[in-house]
Design a protein that fits this description.
By secondary structure, the chain is mostly helical. It has 2 domains: 109 residues, no CATH class; 70 residues, no CATH class. 63% of the residues lie in helices and 3% in strands. It contains 8 helices and 2 strands. Strands 1-2 form a two-stranded antiparallel ribbon. Helix 1 packs antiparallel against helix 2. The protein starts with a helix and ends with a helix.
Amino acid sequence: MKRSKLNFIFDAIAFSGFVFLTTTGVLMRYVLPPGSRRFSTIWGLDRHEWGDIHFWISIVFLGLLAMHLLLHWRWIINIITGRPREESGLRAGLGIVGVVGLIALGIAPLLSPIDTTIESRSGRNLLSVQHGNVQVWGSMTLREAEKATGVPSEHLIKRLGLPPDLAEDECLGDLKKTYGFTLDEVRQIIREYKENH
């Protein structure tokens, strides 16, 4: 196969990958934003499943870009070194430093430590437990909140002033609309329980 045809095929597939990568990124950021959880789907896929697709498209796209660079390697070397003259070594050195710097910047987040906190960046308190941060959502049932936090649902029902015969499969979001409490109050109750037990 001719090199020009091979270049065209790789470039066309790479462009398609870029389009799909952008589409899935926009989809996860604006159409299925964080917090949409399992209740919002597109084509039967929720935000996390679209995130998996986004990840695999990015891996394929990275491979295609690597092939693109290999197919154009001689041209890249010629651009970096140029015609042989005194400053050719400097230009080649700057090109190498630039590539190494770009790679280092790209992998830096993967090598950085993970910070955990009991407060979100927006200033809202989150629940901190032994196994990392657990957030209490309005879409959680009392039973799910108990399972996620280890705080008995009976304790939540009592402290929130809810009817004692309340079903544990009631969603916190529906309950807060009916009984007028906030999720921050639920988080505070859970924090206090954890501190005292």
